[in-house]
Design brief:
Number of helices: 4
Distance between the termini: 70 Å
Largest sheet: 5 strands, antiparallel
Number of strands: 9
Length: 248
C-alpha cells in the first residue's frame, strides 16, 4: 500500500472519528455547563397577591406569596430551555367563609378560564415600578428580566381584566368548584356579596406553602383532574376541567 493510499484511508476514517469525538466533547461540555449553571444569572423576586370579598356584611381576606425567578443563560447553552425565562413558584391563596364555602385566587392557573388567556408573568410588568418608573396606566408595560428585576418595587390594585382566575368551592370536595366572576359575586357567594378588590405587591415574605392542609385532596406530586363532564365547573368552563396544576 503506497503512501497516498494510506493518507487517503486515514482521512476517510480519521475525519469522521474526529468529528464524532468533537461532538461528544462539545455535548459533554454543554451538559456539564447546564448541570452546574455556568454563567447563568437568576434573580428571584417575591410578590404578594391578595384579595378581599364581603359576604353577609363580613369582610374576608386572603393572600399568597409567589416567586418569579428571572433567568438568563448563555446562548451556547440553549439546548432545551430558552435563554430568557421567568419561572413561577407558588400556590393558590384561599379563604374560608362562615358558611363553609372557600374562595381561591389561582395565580398558577394560566389559562384555566375558557376564552380568557391569562399569564401571571405579565402582571408585575403591567402594574409595578421598574427602575423607578411607574407602570400601569401611567407608562407602557416594562418587561422584567435579570437586568432590572432587582429594581421592581411598589404595589398596585389589580384591575379585573388582569385578575388571575378565581374559583369558589361550595364545600371541601373539589367537585363542588365553580368559576368565580368578580363582577357578579352573587352568582356563587349569594345575595349582598361583593368583591372588594385584589392587589399585588413586592415583598420579602417567604413563598406560601401548605395549601394541602386546607385542601387535603391536593397532591403536588400527582397530575389530577378534579372535575368530570357534567360537573358545574366544567359546564361553566366550556368543558375544561379543574386540574392539580391550577393550584400550583
Amino acid at each position: 500500500m503506497n503512501r497516498a493510499v494510506k493518507i487517503a484511508l486515514l482521512v476517510v476514517v480519521g475525519v469522521p472519528v474526529a468529528a464524532i469525538v468533537a461532538v461528544l466533547v462539545w455535548y459533554g461540555t454543554i451538559a456539564t455547563a447546564y448541570h452546574y449553571k455556568w454563567g447563568w444569572v437568576e434573580v428571584p423576586v417575591h410578590y404578594r397577591l391578595s384579595f378581599d370579598v364581603e359576604v353577609g356584611g363580613v369582610s374576608y381576606a386572603a393572600s399568597t406569596v409567589i416567586q418569579f425567578t428571572y433567568r438568563q443563560i448563555p446562548n451556547w447553552q440553549m439546548l432545551t430551555v430558552p435563554g430568557f425565562a421567568a419561572l413561577y413558584k407558588g400556590q393558590a391563596g384561599c379563604v374560608k367563609l362562615a358558611d363553609g364555602k372557600m374562595v381561591c385566587l389561582m395565580p398558577g392557573a394560566k389559562t384555566m378560564v375558557f376564552g380568557r388567556p391569562f399569564y401571571i408573568v405579565g402582571l408585575p410588568n403591567d402594574l409595578l415600578s421598574v427602575n423607578g418608573s411607574p407602570t400601569g396606566p401611567k407608562k407602557k408595560s416594562q418587561p422584567i428580566g435579570v437586568s432590572n428585576a432587582a429594581t421592581v418595587s411598589g404595589s398596585s390594585d389589580i384591575p379585573i381584566n388582569l385578575l388571575p382566575p378565581m374559583i369558589v368551592l361550595d364545600d371541601p370536595r373539589p367537585s363542588s368548584a365553580h368559576l368565580f366572576d368578580p363582577e357578579h359575586p352573587e352568582q356563587t357567594l349569594g345575595a349582598q356579596s361583593r368583591f372588594l378588590g385584589a392587589q399585588i405587591a413586592v415583598t420579602n415574605e417567604p413563598v406560601s406553602q401548605g395549601i394541602e392542609m386546607i385542601l387535603p385532596w391536593l397532591d403536588p406530586g400527582r397530575s389530577q383532574r378534579f372535575s368530570n363532564p357534567g360537573d358545574s365547573f366544567e359546564q361553566e368552563n366550556h368543558g375544561n376541567p379543574l386540574l392539580t396544576a391550577d393550584f400550583y
